[in-house]
Amino acid sequence: MDHPPLPSTESAVTAVREIADAYGLTMTVVHDIGADQTSRRSSAALFKATDPDGSLPHEAFIDLPGRPTVSVRLYPDDDALITVDGVEFHDVPRDQVPAFLRSVYGGSAHVKARVFPPGYRLSVPLPGDETYRERVPALTLTPWLSSILRA
Fold it and tell me: Measured between alpha carbons, how far is 100 from 55 in angstroms, rounded to an integer?
């Protein structure tokens, strides 16, 4: 399924804000604007303050407290790091962040247990055939992760 394009960090923040409002969540956002503020930059040339299109790089950190705790770091390179109850999902395309959050808060995300080798994986299915999976260390299985456990 096609996700609506989010051409900028600010458009992604707006999309996350709409999801937070829909699920009754509070949200805090910290904006890092400028070459000296962003944590990584691959789109600009070395020793340049602006990107090739003349804009300043813009990064945002979004915190969604509650159950589960979710944080989203939006990078200027069109991707994001999403952390769900301590489980990190790296390199999620910025356009897929809203669908990812809808899956988590809508009840589609689940933890799958494996007997051999023993372990857990948090699976976040998106519309279409995309699913993000990350390993959950057994000692960090939170009450929310335990509540969505499937055998």
Answer: 28
Determine the angle formed by the axes of helices 97-106 and 9-22, rounding to 10 degrees: 20
29 sits in which H/E element? strand 28-33
Please state the separation of Cα 124 from the chain's center in Å. Answer: 11
SS3 18: helix
pLDDT tens readout for residues 66-75: 999 999 999 8
pLDDT computed for residue 1 by the predictor: 40
User: Considering only CA atoms, which of 58, 60, 55 is closest in space to residue 71?
Assistant: 60
Q: How far apart are CA 3 and CA 74, in angstroms?
A: 17
Global pTM reads 0.84
Whether residue 117 has a cis bond before it, omega within 30° of 0:
yes
* Angle 32-68-74 from CA coordinates, rounded to 5°: 20
Report how far apart, in Å, the C-alpha atoms of 26 and of each of 51, 58, 122 are.
32, 22, 24
As a whole number of angstroms, the distance between CA 54 and CA 31 comes to 19
